[in-house]
Every structure is written in C-alpha cells, then in structure tokens.
Target: UDP-2,3-diacylglucosamine hydrolase
Amino acid sequence: MSTLFIADLHLDASRPRITELFEKYLASDEVRQADALYILGDLVEAWIGDDDDAELPARIAAATRAVRDAGVPVYFMVGNRDFLLGEAFAERAGLTLLDDGVVHDVQGRPTLLMHGDVLCTDDTAYQAVRRQVRTPEWAAQILAMPLEARRAFAAKARADSKAHTGSTMESIMDVNADAVAAALRGAGVTRLIHGHTHRPAIHCLEVDGKPTERIVLGDWYEHGSVLRVDDRGNVELRGLAVG
Model:
C-alpha cells in the first residue's frame, strides 16, 4: 500500500497528451490500489469557475471520481492557478478539499502539506498579487463575469505570469529557507511536501537541531511526476513517460 502525491499538472486543452497521461495514470493499478491520492495544486493551467462548460473539467471530474469510486480518497489543495475551484466541482469530481498548510498522517508520519507558493517570500511582487486575488470580494467579482470574459481574463493572467517569470531571477521564485523553517516549526513536524516551484527533489535539512525533510513535487509540462510513500516509509520521486 502507498500514498501518492502529484501537483503542477497545468492541464490545458493545448497539451492533450498530458491530459491523456493524467487519465491513464489515474486508471492505473498503482492509483486504484493506493491508500490515498493527493493533488497539491495547479491541476489546471487556469480555473475560471466550477461552472466552466469546457471539455477539460468534465474529463478531470470523470477521472478523479472514478478513483474515489474505487475506494481511494482523492485529496485536493488549490494552487495559484486553480484557487477558484470550489465545493461544487469538488462534489462532482469526488474530491476532498484541503486547506493549504494542513498536517496529515502519511504512512505513520505527520507531514505538512502545502502548494508551496506562500513559501516563496522573496518574490514580493507575486505575494502582493496573491493577497489581492485571494479575497472573497475579488473572487465574487470574477465569478460574476460571463464565461467568455473569464476565459479572456485567464488568458491575460497567464501571459502576465509568463512575463513575470521571464523577468524574475530564479532564486527569487524559489522557496525562502526561513519560510520553510517557520512552516515546519509552526506545524510541529519534520517533513514537508509541496509543489509550485517545479524543482523536484528531496532536501534534507535541519530545523532547531532536528533533521527534517522537504520534498518538492515535479510538474507535468513535458512528462508526469509522482511521489510515492509506501507503508514502510520509503519515498520514491519519479517521472512518468508520455505515450
């Protein structure tokens, strides 16, 4: 038995092979026989609301609900691309929504789960935008717009994000070591799993004299990426080939 983690799939109609890989993986024996599947944010490139009538959300919902119907809990935490995803879609897709920064028992070890963007405190411009768009007032204003207007808004937001990424030093967009230490300290745990930075790795560090572990999930732009934690506590971070 094992617990599985994925993040940063950025599913989009323009990248059909990655969507097919997602569907294939969720139909696999590894997923259907797991203890749980966690999706830690940025499942899609842009989420414009639970009422989106495009094909992609329907395919996602069918894939995740099939996992839940097979008896495997599917936990979902929003990221910076899909933070408008709400209870209506979660119900349809069989998802259990998680707050960012929750602690779950992962194969016997308390583990802090985050999307990861709040840890990138050196990117002050991003953090300012994040604070603005995460207010209920902002969400209500966007969701009141017609679907086509929301699609146009999302396209502009993606373009702005790419421009920011291209003009910002990579080190600024990575996590801040003090923010990581504070998160682990505040949660009272010695392991953190997150995504967002697209830099898959297992980092061993020390916080307040204790050995700790930070596991970063990979993205799904060119191939898949999954973290598997088995019932003996073994950790495997690996890629999934397309095709």
